[in-house]
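ok trying this again, last paste got cut off
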Amino acid sequence: MKSICIIADSTAQFPQPAFLGRSSIRFLPLDIRAGGVNLGEDGDIKVSSFPARASHGFLPQLHLHQPELLHQYVIDLEKAYDEILFLVHSSALSPVYDELKRALVPFGGHTNISLIDTQTIGPGLGMLAQLCSELAAKGLPLVEIERLLRVQIPHIYAVFCTPNHSYLHNSGFLDAAQSKVSEMLNLFGVFTLEEGRLNPVEKVKNHRSVTEIFQEFMEEFENIRSISIVQSNPPASAEVRALRQYAEETFGKTPISEHPISPHVAAIMGPRTLGMFVVEFVKLA
């Protein structure tokens, strides 16, 4: 049986803390840069330090961490593994996927290196990494793991709500006029993540409307594998509590996890972003 190394980028958050093969997953570190300056190492960046508005003094972008060091990193992995699988958050959300794709061009040789655009981020990416590690631990070959992964990817759904429209403008999802007017009016923008791309749904004026939209989002699904809630910073405690209660009452024993918003997602959508990921059961055969 060939040995497989699974590498998820550091935006991944695991809906389930312990699972088969968890210790075998490696992480690809990412940089958050503003004005060409790296804000710090993964784990050192605090979302609480992010300003309410992305302005000329703070325009964060995600990038691959020290791509010049990736060459040696992959060489070392080739010595230890027969096959390597990179799982990266949606290429439509940041340039990381394209940067990694370029960095991996020189490699191949006897090692089979695969790069997957997961079309998701955060708990969605974490769930896919978990799936891959479990399949690898059961002895499935990489080609079969990739096939089953691509079956699951279209069945991971996400909705986000954020008042931080200037971050969305900085990330290329809103024009300057939309961003400025929405923040002046204190509107919350609601977006879904479809095929890896943020799609605007509507704008609302209060948290109650946000809670109702998230509940309606959950109601669209019947056969749910897991629900993950991404908590904003500062926390929207009342909204998250209401959403969790509704999910528990509606979907019974469906696993529900909560995650603080990561610096990576905050850099794209803003620190006050509230999110939800729903994963559907899929017959993997």
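PB: full thing came through this time. The chain has two domains: 4-29+63-151, 155-280.
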